[in-house]
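Ticket #4471: structure export looks truncated?
Reporter: QA, pipeline team
Priority: medium

Steps to reproduce: submit the single chain below to the structure queue and open the exported record.
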Amino acid sequence: MKAAVIFENGDVDCIRYEEVPDPVLAAGEVLLEVRAAALNHLDIWVRKGRPGMELPVPHILGSDAAGIVIEVGENVGHVRPGDEVVINPGLSCGQCEFCRRGEQSECITFGIVGMNRPGTFAERVTVPASNVFVKPQRLTMVEAAALPLAYLTAWRMLLSRARLQPGETVLIHGIGGGVALAGLQLARLAGARVLVTSSSDDKLARAREFGADAGINYANNPCLGDAIRDLTGGRGVDVVFDTVGAATWSVNFKAVRRGGRIVHCGVTTGAETTVNISQLYWNHIVVMGSTMGSNEEFRQMLAAVTASRMCPLVDSVYPLNRVQEATQRMESGEQFGKIVLVPGGKPDSIKEERADSEVRSKMFVGTSAGEPTSAG
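Actual output as written to the record:
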């Protein structure tokens, strides 16, 4: 089969599109024909390498996928050949105390498809059966592939960790990336007011089209924390949703209200910073980390997407053999939404799918936060 693989760590040009052996189905697993697979910043970290992480080569990249079940292994009963499915990329042992209590993302051996086992940028992939869920019927394969990592991460950050409540105000940094946009859509679904930041006026304007209540260009606001305070009448936001890391750490403590919550899931601008401990305890601030989510949270996220008629926003769709070009777009930070790869995709159908996806995404946006339309 054809796949996007690496033989060594490096820049984008180390990704190769070539023939690799078909995956071998094991007991308790499902073999999928991949119809669509979305990119994530995780793919960059895996490709570039991290200390202590050694991959068997060639290694297939990719964590997200939607596709059709080809075959199921022994002891698999909840899906069968021909089913349209989407995968939860989180891997867990199923045996430790955290897995037994349903907190798979806290598993002592937690891993991710595309990092700890061969990934989804291929024509076929095998995954544990527990990671396979029936695809929301109204979503296309491209839209469904955009859901898993980004929307599960955002769901856990907002609903499980920060316990977002209707009427609260959320600050989302770096709008345009997959997790940030997922956070915008889910925060609106929860009835929250949403403030967003970006260095691009175009992205801020587009975020307003998709439901943001206000946006701030941080390139034009050296005192970003004060600007956010002004938007909240001096009160501060209830929740900070941060995928950025070190660059926004001090801003978050200025922007959040007393007793507010800050939840982090990424370090794209660096992993180390300094902490003013007095700000933390004096203002009763709660700072939380979050990675991916549990199987139950994945089920809840899919149910919410289905019930609300939400569609993830797709920035662009590429044939799998143009994986380098798609990756360069993600690394440049130009995207607004998810970038999706399609094995064997044809250019004309890909353009139509991407355009239709943006229209369907806008159908979710109501006239005010928390009021999705019934169109779609």
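Status: closed, not a bug. The export was complete when the record was re-opened. Leaving a note from the reviewer for reference: Residues 367-376 have pLDDT under 50 and may be disordered.
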